[in-house]
Amino acid sequence: MRVLARALAAVALVLGLLVLGTGSASAHVLPTSTVRLAVGASTVEAEVSVPVSDLEAAAGLDLGDASETAVDAQAAAIDAYLLAHVRPTSDDGRAWSVTAAAPTVTGAGDARTTGLYREVHVLLTLTPPAGAGVRSFDLGYDAVVARVATHTVIVTVASDWSSGQVAAPYEVGTVVRDTVTGTVEPLHVDLGAGSDLRGFTSMVRLGITHIAEGTDHQLFLLTLLLPAPLLLAGRRWGGPVPARRAVARIARTTLAFTLGHSVTLALGALGVPAPQRAVEVLIAVSILVAAVHAVRPVFAGREAVVAAAFGLVHGLAFSATLRELDLSGARLVLSLLGFNLGIELMQLVVVALVLPPLVLLARDGRYREGRTAAAVLVGVAAVGWVLARLGLTNPVADLADGLGTVALPVVAVLWVAALVVLRSARAVSAGPPRRPASSGSAAATTPATPG
């Protein structure tokens, strides 16, 4: 009986653990909404995201199946509810004005943690009174949390140009309900001092990062470098050119690429529309063309012209980053200058790291095989990108996206190979070592010493 009782107890314990485990695995985190602040020169845009079920419970709305149609039908009521629960004030107590855009709805959540749910998004524009700044204020937000005791509002800064924050959002605080008093204290937002210099330097860093992490932009430039140290021999690439000529050639090409993307970067940032999908496809095509040219001359002598033409395309892709920041006036001008400067600095770093070993390797008879192999690999990656950006997913594109992580090891291998070639060339030019004279001949030519 004791054995049976212990067995039943063990079974009960196991079942209990399984039940608890199942419950914890399917448990959802507390309901949460977010407010993402984009700080401008004279206004603050707040993107509010609220789970549909919590919004219905707090506002007394029925959003049906939470489809876009259902939310559109209640758009006025949703905006009215949020406007009644967002009351920002300056540090001197003066109220800000608030306007709301039309709400939208999307899917959100994770099946393993929060569960899948629908979320309403509304963009609010907060405008301080005359003479008040945007860098210190009380948010005065209590939507949903004033009615749902367990609700939490996470407030983050998505972008703040003056503080140099243009890429990585950070949390500034949370809005919760005091379960004892039942009150919701307003969250004070203090963004500190900002300056144009911080904004400018942040854009320089963003430009550097954009090239450093932009595998396709890097590959286009690197592939143009492959034939730079070579002479044109008929319809083929021949032997090496003098180092000075190779540097001049790539300098012209890089400058032309810079001029091309600078034009469309400015136009795109100013709002000139560009179909981003077509732009991304054309960027992949530019890499494919450069890869073919590296194997067999396609536009020999016209590299600068082609680089300028494709630079126009790459500039349209660059401009998408600036458009997301929604800048204007002096901030836009400084951002264009800083972002462009960052791009050029990173391009110069790439050229400075890669061109010298390529010039040395071009003097080795095996450079042709290496150049061809590299160009073929780049061409395959470009084809994968073209297909993926046309909507045809493929593993080649996925592998190509990870090429940026091997950039530094590849550069290191290039330098090691170049130094080996240089050492071998010096050894050959020095000729065979002189043989020392034999002891016998030395004895014959050395006069005898009298005893």
Give keywords:
451 residues, alpha+beta, 7-stranded mixed sheet, 3-stranded antiparallel sheet, 14 helices, elongated, disordered C terminus
Please, could you describe this protein's structure?
Keywords: Membrane, Signal, Transmembrane, Transmembrane helix. This is HupE / UreJ protein. The chain crosses the membrane at residues 334-361, 373-392, 404-425. It comes from Microlunatus spumicola. Residues 430-451 are annotated as: Disordered. The chain has helices at residues 2-26, 52-59, 68-73, 75-84, 196-213, 215-225, 243-269, 276-295, 303-323, 329-361, 367-389, 395-401, 407-430, 439-445; strands at 32-39, 44-51, 89-90, 97-100, 104-110, 115-127, 136-138, 152-160, 170-176, 188-190, 230-233, 236-240. The strands form 3 sheets. Strands 1, 2, 4, 5, 6, 8 and 9 form a 7-stranded mixed sheet that branches. The chain has a 3-stranded antiparallel sheet with strand order 3-7-10, with no helix packed on it. It has a two-stranded antiparallel ribbon with strand order 11-12. The longest helix has 33 residues, at 329-361. The model is unreliable at 3-28 and 439-451 (pLDDT under 50). It has 14 helices and 12 strands. It is α+β, with helices and mostly antiparallel strands. The chain has 2 domains: 28-194, no CATH class; 198-426, no CATH class. Helix 8 (276-295) runs antiparallel to helix 9.
Task: Briefly characterize the structure.
By secondary structure, this protein is of the alpha+beta class. The protein has 14 helices and 12 strands. Residues 3-28 and 439-451 have low confidence and may be disordered.
